Each structure stands twice: as structure tokens, then as C-alpha cells.
């Protein structure tokens, strides 16, 4: 299922570098999310966007920024990467038009910061 | 705040039933979800249940919800080796539509 795609799938970078992770969706959903997954910690919400002009901080937004360039695109930036940002990053989408508002996840980006 | 807890690990034999448990603290939860994550993949929605239901069945999957005890379980009948994965429960409260995830239960199915 390629409705939610993420690029790159894997990335190695050095401390202090700026990197961007991209997410695109073809589901026509209005809401998009960025999560990070660390072993034993489940998923933590970084940022979320309910529409193109709506951006909100999640639980762990420090050190990250986002841009909602269009309804279908939501990118996550690490302005100056640090090693403890090494994690698996997931983008997700949902539709406000459904009551259960199921979130659909991309395949993830594995990021290693050296 | 909201909290969702799961046991970390479950091991079963192929053909047996698996029961994965989850407890949550938010009494205003509206929907509860089960997601499956296979190695190297994203989270795949398995099923969800609305908070005014106590059971939902979907083929080999049965979800039981005890709202009084804030306890959710996922039963997988006739577990197969392909069911080996990490299973996450998640809950959604009222108002802001944030999902709160548990830490995941790793299910290992042996032949």
C-alpha cells in the first residue's frame, strides 16, 4: 500500500547537519502527523497538522520543525541534528470526515545521527 | 495525563490462540485501536472498537473492551508464524484527535 510514502527510507547524517524528511499521501486526507519511535517507548508525536495552514506542536517538538507545503505533503526538518535524534520516524494521515479517524502510517524513515 | 500500557513480550506456538492485553487511563476514550508492525515496516491498522461496544470480531481477530476496568485485549485465533510482529494498542480521547500509543507487545510465534 503506497498511499503514504516517505523519503528517504534510510539516512545517515552527522551531528550539526540540517536534514529534511518528506512525506506524501494520495489518500486525500486533511490531517497529517509526524511521530518518532524509539525501542521500548512506543510512538511519540512530534508535530501535527489539521490543514495546510494549521501546524501544532506535539509531545516532543524541540529540535524539529515542519512544513505543510500542500494538503498532500508534510515535511519534517531537523535544523541541527544530534545523536539522540537517532530513531525511526513515521508520517501518518487521517481524515476529519470519519468519526473513528483512523491514522494510516507510512513505511518509516530510519535516521542515524553520528 | 493519558497512559497506555502493554506487556512487552508474548510467545505462543503456531495454532494456539494469542491474547495481547492493554490498559489505559483516559476514561473519555472514544475509540481504541490495534496496530501491527512487522520488521522494517510501518504500522498497519488491524482493527478498532468504539468505546460503547464491548466486543468486535473480524475473522481471526476478536477485540474485547472492558470500559469499567479500562482494559482492552486482542485475541488472535489459530496464530500463524506470519502473525509474529509488534502489536500496538492506541486510544483516542475526546477533543483533540491525538492518538496515545502503548509501548507495543512483541509476539513471537514458534512452529
Largest sheet of chain B: 6 strands, mixed
**Sequence stretches where pLDDT stays below 50 over 5 or more residues of chain B:** none
Which structural category do the helix and sheet elements of chain A fall into?
mainly beta
Helix content of chain B: under 10%
> Average pLDDT of chain B, to the nearest integer?
91
Shape of chain B: globular
For the biggest sheet of chain A, the summary is:
7 strands, mixed
Secondary-structure element string of chain B:
EEEEEEEEEEE
Shape of chain A: globular
Got a strand count of chain B? 11
Task: Please report the distance between the alpha carbons of the first and last residues of chain A.
Answer: 32 Å
Instruction: Name the chain pair with the biggest interface and residue counts per chain.
Output: A-B, 22 and 22 residues
Give me the number of helical elements of chain B: 0
How many separate helices of chain A? 0
The number of distinct β-strands of chain A equals 11
Question: How would you characterize this protein structure?
Answer:
The complex is a heterodimer of chains A (114) and B (111). Chain A has no helices and eleven strands. In chain A, the strands form two sheets. In chain A, strands 2, 4, 5, 6, 9, 10 and 11 form a seven-stranded mixed β-sheet that branches. A four-stranded antiparallel β-sheet of chain A has the order 1-3-8-7, with no helix packed on it. The mean pLDDT of chain A is 93. Helices cover 0% and strands 55% of the residues of chain A. In chain A, strand 5 (43-51) and strand 6 (54-57) form a beta hairpin. The termini of chain A are far apart. Chain B is an all-beta fold. Chain B is 0% helix and 57% strand. Chain B is built from no helices and eleven strands. The radius of gyration of chain B is 13 Å and the shape is globular. The termini of chain B are far apart. The model of chain B has no long low-confidence stretch (mean pLDDT 91).
Amino acid at each position: 500500500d503506497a498511499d503514504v510514502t516517505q523519503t528517504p527510507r534510510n539516512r545517515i547524517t552527522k551531528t550539526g547537519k540540517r536534514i529534511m524528511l518528506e512525506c506524501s499521501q494520495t489518500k486525500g486526507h486533511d490531517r497529517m502527523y509526524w511521530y518518532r519511535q524509539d525501542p521500548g517507548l512506543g510512538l511519540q508525536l512530534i508535530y501535527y497538522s489539521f490543514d495546510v495552514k494549521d501546524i501544532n506542536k506535539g509531545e516532543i517538538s524541540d529540535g524539529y520543525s515542519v512544513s505543510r507545503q500542500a494538503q498532500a505533503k508534510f515535511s519534517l526538518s531537523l535544523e541541527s541534528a544530534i545523536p539522540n535524534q537517532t530513531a525511526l520516524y513515521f508520517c501518518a494521515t487521517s481524515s476529519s470526515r470519519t468519526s473513528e479517524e483512523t491514522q494510516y502510517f507510512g513505511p518509516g524513515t530510519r535516521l542515524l545521527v553520528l | 495525563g493519558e497512559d497506555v500500557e502493554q506487556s512487552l513480550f508474548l510467545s505462543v506456538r503456531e495454532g494456539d490462540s494469542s491474547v495481547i492485553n492493554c490498559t489505559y487511563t483516559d476514561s473519555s476514550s472514544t475509540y481504541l485501536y490495534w496496530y501491527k508492525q512487522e520488521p522494517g515496516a510501518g504500522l498497519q491498522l488491524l482493527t478498532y472498537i468504539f468505546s460503547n461496544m464491548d466486543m468486535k470480531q473480524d475473522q481471526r481477530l476478536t477485540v474485547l473492551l472492558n470500559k469499567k476496568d479500562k482494559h482492552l485485549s486482542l485475541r488472535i485465533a489459530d496464530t500463524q508464524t506470519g502473525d509474529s510482529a509488534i502489536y500496538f494498542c492506541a486510544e483516542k480521547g475526546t477533543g483533540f484527535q491525538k492518538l496515545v500509543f502503548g509501548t507495543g507487545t512483541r509476539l513471537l510465534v514458534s512452529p
